[in-house]
Structure formats: C-alpha cells, structure tokens
Amino acid sequence: MPAGAPGARGEEEDGMLSWWRKDPEAGLPERVRAAVRAQEDATERLISWVQLGIVLTFGTLYFLSPKPEELDFAPVPWALGIYLALTLIRAAWAHLGRLPDWALAASVFVDITLLMVLIWSFHIQYMQPPSFYLKAPTLLYVFIFIALRALRFDARFVVLAGLLAALGWGALIAYVVYADPADTMITRDYVAYLTSNTVLLGAEFDKIISILVVTALIAAALARAKGLLVRATAEGSAARELSRFFAPEIAERITGAEDRIRAGSGEMREAAILNLDMRGFTRLAAAAPPEEVMRLLHEYQQRMVPVIQRHGGSIDKFLGDGILATFGAAQPSESYAADALRALEDIVAAAAEWQRECALAGRSCPQVNGAVATGAILFGAVGDDTRLEYTVIGEAVNLSAKLEKHNKELGVRALCDRASYEKAIAQGYAPASDKPQAAAVEVAGVDAPLDLVVIAP
Question: Are residues 335 and 431 in the same domain?
Fold first, then answer.
C-alpha cells in the first residue's frame, strides 16, 4: 500500500501510539491482573487525597497573601473553586469505582490547565505586564503534578502531564512575547531579566527542558518499576497459590530459598508421620456416582486438614482417600510426637462427628482410620529438573502406613507404636483417657513384633 494512502497512514499511527496503548500486563492470568488493578485503584484514591491537600494548601496561601484593593476581578478564587469541585468529584469517583483511562487523562489536563491559568492570572491580579508571571515560583507545582502520576506506576500519565506542562509554559511565553507587538520585552541581559519584567528566552526554555527531562527520567523509571510491580504481584499471587497446593511451610521454603532447589537435596529430621485413610472407601467409590465420591472426599479433607494444621502438622500429600502428614519434618519441632498424637485424637473426634451428621442426613460416610509412627526421616526434594516434590523417606513413614492398615485387623480406629507413645508422653502429651496397649503384636510387613497403643478403639 502506498505510504500516503489512508490505510498506510493509519497503520503508521497505530505503530507510533502502540507504546501508549500497550498493556504491560498482557499475558498475565486474570487474578494477577486484578491484583495489579487493585493496587492502581488504591493509588488513585491516594492521588485524590494528595490533590485535595494541594488545592487546600494553595487556597490557604492565596487568601493569606496581600492583594491590591482596587482589583475588580480575581480569577484565582474561581480557578481554585473549580479545581476543588473537580478534585472532590474525582475523589468520590475513585472511592466508588475504577477510573477509566480517559478520566485519568482528563484529570491530568485539568490539573495542568488550571495551574497555568492561575500563573497567567498573576499579572492581572497584581496589575503588571504579562512577563511578570514568568517569575512566579508557582511553576514548581508542575513537578508535583508530574510526580503525582508516578504513584500509579503508569508512565503514560507522567508523559502526558510533562508534555502538557511544557506546552502550557511555552504558550505562556508566547503570550508574553506577542501580547504587545510593539514591545516583546525580550532581553539578553541576565541581570536585567532578574531585576525587571523583561524576558530571557534562554532561561524560559531551560524551564521547559527541565520539565521534559524530569518527565523522561520519571517515565523511564516507571517503565522499569511497573515491570517489577507486575512481577512482584505475580510472584505474590503464585506464592499464595503454592500454599494451596503445598503445605504453607513447604510453600515458604520454595519461595524463600536462597538457591535453586535441586533434586537430591535433603536433611535428616526427627519427626512424626501421620497416615489417615477411609475404611471401605474403594468399595464405595466403585458403586457411587463420581460427583458423590468427589463430594465425600472434599468433605473428608475439609474436616481433617484444618485439624492437622492446627496442631502444627504439614500435609505431605493426598493419596486418594489417604492423607500423609508430617510433624517436625518441614519445620523442626521439639514436640513433634505429642503434636501428632493430639492431632490424631482430635481427628478421630472430628470423624465421629462427621459420621453422625451423615447419618442424620441419611448418607453413608466411611470410618476414618489413623496411625502415627516416629523416628529419623529424610526430608528433601525428589524428582528431576522438570518436576520436583518435597517428601519424607524413612522407616517411620513405612511403619505409619503399615500401622494404619493394621487398624482393620484389630478393629480399632487409631494406633501408634509404644515407642512413639512414650516419646509423646515425654514431650508433654496427656492422653484424654487410658489407652489400651497390646504387647508383641505381629504387624504385616514388619519383621519383629511390636508393642502397640490403641489411641481410639
């Protein structure tokens, strides 16, 4: 298509303005984009309050300053009144909902325009030639309005504020030079410029250059900062999501690791291992509709997991209807055995309450079995570079699983070996009632007979 054709010109304009419309959050999940938008909305509310403070400060300074008595019309109060009204509208809008881009751009335009009108009005208020207002230090407020836009982490509005300020000051210079064609008031004498109402164009252009340079620097910093904000928000969201898939201690370990976690890294711990299982669940799952099976699993896990976590346990994994939890593995503990048995007692009570509720509702809920074993375990990462998992390895892990299965042989709900029970007592565990004990019990898969303690018959 020829370069001068309308379609080509539109494509060129799209290319030049793409940076303006570019969405730095493109490709991010909606939940992350929503978190970034929430940060921006909070910033807009902050900006509204800062603007309100600015207009009140400016108004106070104006009304305290001396004014000529013969002044027939004072534009400053009108400009301040308009700005105050618009600021209040903006603040209310920001607190009620999200401000669209066009409203933010209009707010920038109003800020800069009213500031320039205020500066322009000084020569009328004080009955001086137009060049009088070029000496006003009020121009410094421009940098406040530019910096305000930096709070949002969006360089577009900083650039807009800077360009409008530069154009506005240029327009004020042009007004001074051309207001009286007979006397442009231009001088090349710096002393005369400072001590009279003459105009030194170089000094005024320095102000414009300063505005543009500050704008460019803030915009460049914001472009980098926005990337960091988005990345930090994404990582924060990822960390929160990790805590849903991993125990909070594991998620914290992953996100807070100084070095990259590699397969094969691990640490020895003294820990307690808790295994839970629903008796008869496999048979029930084969006969029940899938939705009912998944609802049952959800109810079971929703009740058991908080109990485990309340006693300091970490969920290692869900194994169908089984739950493997650790105490003292992810985070070293001096009371791991006591915590595990306390958790097991409360789990038995929670499971019994669940069964009663199911019975009242005319539903069938399987009995929950549990077992605890303690000992030295290896806690670490397994897998390869594409898929890692924190897990526990050791005799206590295997024994806990075997004891959980042995509940069925004894017709009880919860077991532990005598060594773990005595260790828990030494760590402060006080059983709710006397626990039946069995000596020299043969447990499938265990080489030597074990002394067992029935935590719940």
Answer: yes
Provide, rounded to the nearest whole percent, the portion of the chain with pLDDT above 90: 29
The model's pTM is: 0.54
pLDDT below 50 — which residues of the chain? Answer: 1-21
Q: Could you tell me if 204 and 270 lie in one domain?
A: no
Neighbours of 227 (CB within 10 A): 12
Range of the structural domain that residue 319 is part of: 263-456
Amino acid symbol at 408: K
Q: At 28, list the tokens.
A: 């991010």
Structure tokens at 178: 């051309």
Instruction: Please name the amino acid found at residue 429.
Output: Y
Q: Return the pLDDT at 293.
A: 87
What single-letter DSSP state applies at residue 443? -
Q: What is the number of alpha carbons within 13 Å of residue 270 lying toward its C-beta?
A: 10
- Please state the domain count of the chain: 2
Q: Is the dihedral of CA 117, 73, 82, 137 positive or negative?
A: positive
Who contacts 433 (Cβ-Cβ below 8 Å, separation ≥6)? none
Q: Are residues 195 and 122 in the same domain?
A: yes
Rounded CA separation 159/218 (Å): 9
Query: How far is 318 from 407, CA to CA, in rounded Å?
Result: 20
Contact (CB, 8 A) for 271 and 329: yes
pLDDT of residue 436: 85
State how far the alpha carbon of 118 is from the alpha carbons of 75, 112, 171, 172, in Å. Answer: 7, 10, 14, 11
